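Dear V.,

Thank you for sending over the compound details. I've combined the ligand you provided, zinc ion, with the protein sequence from our construct and run the structure prediction for the complex. I'm sharing the raw inputs here so there's no ambiguity about protonation or stereochemistry in the SMILES, which I know was a concern on your side last time.
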Amino acid sequence: MKKTLYTLFLAFAASVASAQDINKIITKDYVDHLIKTLSSDEMQGRRTFTPGIDKAASFIEGEFKQIGLKPLAGASGYRQTFYKYQFKPVSAKVTIDGQAVPSENIVVVGHNNEQLSFDQTNSDGFIKLDPSKDFITQYRGLARSGKKQLVLVDVNFVDAFNRLKGQAGRAVDEKDLNPAKPSAIVFVLDKDTVAKDFKVELKNEIVKMPLFNVAGIIPGKSKAKELVIFSGHYDHMGIVKAKDGDSIMNGADDDASGTSAMIALAKYYKKLNNNERTLIFVAFTAEEIGGFGARYFSQQLNPDDVVAMFNIEMIGKDSKFGKNTAFITGYDKSDFGQILQKNLAGTEFTFHPDPYIKENLFYRSDNATLAALGVPAHTISTDKIDVDPYYHQLTDEYKTLDVENILSTIKAIAKSAVSIVKGIDTPTRIPKLGQR
Ligand SMILES: [Zn+2]
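Below is the predicted structure of the protein with zinc ion bound, written out as structure tokens.
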């Protein structure tokens, strides 16, 4: 009897403590500190492969250490490093009918070799883009063709051509380097035809570049093999051409807000110290250049072990449903959203299904890789993606954020995840997409 009473008292004390503690653990000051630091100019826009993202990673590592997270099984630290190969064009020479094309009028796509030379006799020849059709559609078809070809671009496409030129160097895996059957699509601006012959000579330097996710765990007490993931991407778009005296893409909402939420949740669950399942907290790299970080991370574990993934992306301004609301992408693909909603019953916060189905957000963020592998992996967001004037702009800065919105969303996620963290609820799986 005495023991039962005592147990009851403990349970009561614990529930009171956790209800109070959330406001003490996830404070405005703490969240402010995280977002301000991640979106500061010092981080130089956190572009993958730059010193700025290295700084951001070190900051997140420091926070994880202070919180007391453990590294992933088998890892010695929080950084999960992998490599890609980047191409730095050394030279690209094109001669048409004996005349050299100015270098600013040349863009090469799909060339993964250190050296390549071809002319009209040993290639797929030349074509001319149809000036009456869309540039991008024609470009996409060509970029994937695997051909060796010269493509003449009408001068009316000059803007699209320059955008293509401005794109960052591609990054590929080791297996895609120096293919036995080389390809290159060589776009040449302001040339109408090839009367007699052409010649192409390309040289690349290949540089091995590190990328790193930052990940830490809180081991589960009784269901340690079952994993629950909380994530956000910490990369953004770096330094661009200045506009109104600013050239740093700070990415405060995208996705310093989600990364900060992930860190704050780590702090919260570590303090609670009652998770039956193992919790993984991860800041993904390279979301903005193709989701490489999430893909690498997903390949390091068995997706069947992952019970749920809470990916958090852009929670810096209130959602179209108003204050104390957020939406969940792929809401009807599993019962993840319903479980979260059930745990929020009696609070002022509600989750909604993604209202921007046409935007295809479910497949546009880092949840997509694990979702394709069957994991109930969803993104939680509050962004009005159709009208957000700051999205992917220089103006996505700390001062445009509503920190109260971020705070309330983080706390709602913390409460809504509780039955999954404790191993009581298990969301239904999402049908696997194709093969791994
Ligand atoms: Zn993003």
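A first observation: Residues 2-25 form the longest helix (24 residues).

Warm regards,
I. M.
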